[in-house]
Amino acid sequence: MSAMAEKKKTLRQQVRKQLSALTAEELKRSDAALFEKFLALPQVQKAKTIFGFWGIAGKEPDTSVLIKELVAQGKTICLPRMLPGHLMELPQYVPERPMIDAGFGIWEPDPSSPLIDRAQVDLVLVPAVCYDRRGYRLGFGGGYYDRWLEHYEGDTVGLCRDVVLQDEVPTEAHDSKVDVLLTERQSLSF
């Protein structure tokens, strides 16, 4: 394992430990503050199609709450479906259709859900283990988002709990940063 991969692995373990120490009530309050800030962003208000993610319990904010609110506001929401070769396609979230357990705590839309083209996406809510104050993310290690985002021109937003916001995450040349990073107490634009 390279020194960079080792640094990232160590930081992932450290962040997971910090998050697992939070109570259910603390997580719920944190989510509410993050989602309130996200919904208030002008980029979110003007976006018609948002590429979101269904948060992994205990590791990410419970975005199912946020996604349902965005759908109620008339937004088209798509979620990631991982494909071989570290690629992703974007099936639309349709509330009436069941979510499918893809393993590792990941839920994705039913296979019959219509696919959304990258060109239709106005904004991406980018998942991460954590972020740093520069807007760079520590991902889960699969490289799916790094590959997808390198050909994306629209707005990108990250959510990070204050407790795991880093001064600097280890980055490599292919790592991209988000345009806006929200914590419970801060809104950072890059």
Radius of gyration: 16 Å
- Backbone structural class: alpha/beta
The number of helical elements comes to 5
Task: Characterize the overall form.
Answer: globular
Distance between the termini: 32 Å
Low-confidence stretches: none
Question: What is the residue-averaged pLDDT?
Answer: 93
The proportion of strand residues reads 15-25%
Strand tally: 12
The largest beta-sheet arranges its strands as 2-1-7-10-11-12
Biggest beta sheet attributes: 6 strands, mixed
Helix content: 25-40%
How would you spell out the order of helices and strands?
HHHEHEEEEEEEEHEEE
Distinctive features:
six-stranded mixed β-sheet, two-stranded antiparallel ribbon, 12 strands, globular, alpha/beta, about 190 residues, 5 helices, about 20% strand, single chain
What can you tell me about this protein's structure?
By secondary structure, the protein is of the alpha/beta class. 29% of the residues lie in helices and 21% in strands. It is built from five helices and twelve strands. It has helices at 3-20, 24-40, 42-46, 63-72, 144-149, and strands spanning 49-51, 76-78, 81-83, 87-89, 99-103, 106-109, 123-126, 130-131, 137-138, 155-159, 180-182, 187-189. A six-stranded mixed beta sheet has the order 2-1-7-10-11-12, with helices on one face. The model has no long low-confidence stretch (mean pLDDT 93).
